[in-house]
Fold this protein.
Amino acid sequence: MSLKGFRRNFRPLEILSKEQIDDIRRGVLAVLQNTGMRFESKMALEIFKKNHCLVDFDEMRVKFPPGLVEECLRKTPSNFYFKSRNPDHDLIIGGNSTYFCAFPGMNTVDIDTWESRRATREENRDALIVLDALDNLHFLTPYTPYFGFDDTPPVMSIPESAAAKIRYSTKLQFSGYQKDCELFTIEMGKVANTEIQGMMESSPPLTYYEDAVMSAYRFTKAGLPLHITSGAVIGGTSPATVAGTLVTSVAEIVGGIIFAQLVKPGTRVVANAFVFPQNMMTGLPFFGSVGISLHEAAFNQVWRNLNIPVQSSAIGPTNSKMIDYQNCYEKAIPALVAALSGAHIIQFHGGVYGELTHHPVQSIMDDDVAGVIGRFIEGIEVSDETLALDLIHDIGPIPGFYLNTSHTRKWWQKDQFIPKVADLLPYTQWQTEGKKGALEKAKERMDKILNTHKPVPLSDEQEKEIRHILDKARKYYKEKDLL
C-alpha cells in the first residue's frame, strides 16, 4: 500500500487579516525580546549566550534579539522529505499536503463496558497492525497506541513502544522522550533504516525543561526532523484569549526553533499545537471545543505565513468516554477546520477520552472520517471531461439518464468517497441483515484486518539488533536504579 496523503487544491481557510497576522508576529517578537523564555539547561544557555542573546544564568532566562529570531526562522525548511523503512511510505511534509496520524491513550478501553484498563502486549501489537493497515493513516505518534503495556516497566515504555512500532508497521513515527530514552530510539531507527522524528515540548508558560532540550539536541545532532510543541491550556497556562495564547504558543515554539537551528542550521521542524481551553466548570481541558478549532485555524495560518510545516494535535481526544455521536463531532469538526486551514499533519486516529484511552475500533472509524475530509480538501476538478458538455448534450432532457455511461463508470468513484464501515444499506436490507451500525461494522473490520493484514517484518538481523538495543536500555536503567 502506497501512502499518498491528500493535497489541498484550493486556498486555505484564513480567519485572520494581514494586519492581525502582523500584530501577532510583533507580539511574538516582543515576548521573545522583552519577556524571554526559561531554559532549564546550562548547555542551551551557553549556546544562546554565544549567539548574542541576553542570558540570565541564575534565572535561566533568555531574551532573543529579533534579528536572530528572523534568521533562525529563515533557516527552517518550508518542506522536507521524511524517510520510512518502506519507500512507499516516505512522505514530503509541507506545501499543500495533509496527512493524518494516530492519537494515543494511556490505556485501552473495553468497548462493551467502556471501562479503561492497561493494555496487554498483544493488544498493543494488534492496535499497531490495525493502524498499519489503514489507508488514511500516515504517521505513528509518540506513545502510540498506548503509554506502555502490562509487563513493561514505566522507564522502558517509550523504547518498547518504539520497537513495537518498528516491528509492526513501516509507517513513519515520532518518538517521545524521558530519562534519556531517545538514545535508544535513535539507534533503533538506524537499525531499521528509517527516520524517527524527535520531540521537543514546551512547558507553558514560556519554559523548556532540560529533558526537552536534550531530546532536541540529540535528534538534531543525528540529523533527524524535530516536532516542537506548545501544550498550553487557554486560561490556565496561557492567556484566556485565543489571540493571547497564539502569542505565547507561537513564541514557545519559536524558542525551540532557535535552539534547533543554532545546534544544526537547516534542521527540519514541524510546529505543533497541542492547545486546549480550560473548562472552568471542571478544571479539565475542554476537548472538542470551538476554542480548539479557533486556535488551530489561526495557529495554522500564522505558521503558513512563516512558511514552516504545521501540525494540529488537539484534534484526537474527546470528552466522551465512548465511541458515540459526541465523540464523532468533537473530533470531526476540529479535524475538518484543521485541514481547511492548512494543517500539514492532523493527529486524529484512535483517541477516545482525553489521553486516557485509545482503541483500534476507533481508529477504523476515524479512518473513514479522515477519508471524507481528505476527499473534500482535494476539491473539484474542472476540465472538458468533467464539465461533460458533449455528454450532457447527448443525453438531453428526460427520458435521458447517465447511469449507463462510461463517464459515470469512470468518474463516480473518483469524485466520491466510499466509507468502509458506515451503514449505507436501505432500511429493509439493514433490518434483514442484523441491524448493524458503524460500530459493529468497525469491529468486524478489525477482526478481518487482524486475520489478513501482515505488516512487513524486520529482517532477522534487524530484529536481533532491536532486541540488543532494548537490552542495552534495560542495563542502562538498572545502573541508574530506575529499573
User: Anything to note?
Assistant: Residues 384-415 form one domain.
